[in-house]
Design brief:
The chain has helices spanning about 10-25, 45-50, 115-135, 160, 170-180, 225, and strands spanning about 1-5, 30-35, 55, 65-70, 75-80, 90-95, 100-105, 140-145, 185, 200, 215, 215-220, 230-235, 250-255. By secondary structure, it is of the alpha+beta class. Strand 1 (about 1-5), helix 1 (about 10-25) and strand 2 form a beta-alpha-beta unit. About 45% of the residues are buried.
């Protein structure tokens, strides 16, 4: 199974890029984040013409997640179903055969100490609680998405400068580590140990050509699924060309 995740920063703006990427890479499943459209506005027909089912949890203007899959999905779930779900469409889970695939868009957090920051930290807490309720550690689970957290100093171009920010603050990293402690393995780090490998670059200040980025897009695998992970890569080339997203796809290959 080839599985990928990509924050497209508006499916309207990036529709042709997504379709082109699907044709060129032919993943079995692609998790999308930051759609910025409602479900009825998602381009399901063009996606279907390429042989993909579209499971969508959309929202007007903001947020929104999807899973595009060649296998027909089952057990489609939207949100945490914990009594605290609001209008922010940030979590979608589907079952593809034996594998549970989750597309997650973790809140950015805006400014450390703000209400949006508190929402981010609590959202990560709820994600861990949802994993505890929903799965066992023997399940084949892939939690994919834009986590808006770089886990380690090697995932950040300038750790000292970024540490006070919402993307690399110690509290955010601790909250992410609590999620991972459920039993999730960073698929990318199974195959790449070097620093300087990023999935997001700011549009400003020539950040991409200078490689001033962060690795905040992740594929986390349950341990039984991680044992079947044969490769992982960041598709850096997708940041090039006209109208790119500020994020690029992360791709893993699983023996499933």
């Amino acid at each position: 199974m080839k599985l990928a995740t990509w924050n497209v920063n508006s499916i309207r703006a990036r529709e042709e890029r997504v379709l082109r990427w699907l044709r060129a890479n032919e993943p079995d499943a692609l998790c999308l984040q930051e759609l910025k459209v409602t479900e009825d506005a998602f381009p399901a027909l063009p996606v279907r013409s390429l042989g993909y089912h579209a499971s969508v949890h959309g929202q007007k203007t903001y947020n929104g997640v999807a899973v595009l899959s060649r296998p027909e999905p089952s057990d489609v779930e939207r949100g945490f179903d914990d009594g605290g779900d609001d209008e922010q469409a940030r979590l979608l889970a589907v079952r593809l055969g034996a594998v549970h695939v989750v597309s997650a868009y973790v809140p950015n957090g805006a400014v450390v100490g703000s209400e949006k920051w508190a929402y981010k930290i609590d959202w990560l807490r709820r994600l861990r609680a949802w994993l505890d309720r929903r799965f066992t550690r023997t399940d084949l689970v892939a939690v994919c998405g834009d986590f808006n957290v770089a886990p380690e100093p090697r995932d950040v171009c300038d750790p000292a400068a970024w540490e006070p920010s919402v993307l690399f603050h110690p509290e955010a990293r601790s909250a992410l580590e609590h999620v991972r402690a459920w039993g999730l393995v960073d698929a990318f780090r199974l195959h790449h140990q070097a620093a300087g490998l990023y999935s997001w670059w700011d549009y400003r200040m020539l950040a991409f050509p200078r490689n001033q980025g962060l690795r905040i897009d992740h594929v986390f695998l349950s341990e039984p699924l991680a044992a079947r992970c044969r490769s992982a890569r960041i598709d850096r080339n997708e940041r090039k060309g006209k109208q790119p997203s500020d994020h690029v796809p992360v791709v893993v290959e699983l023996e499933v």
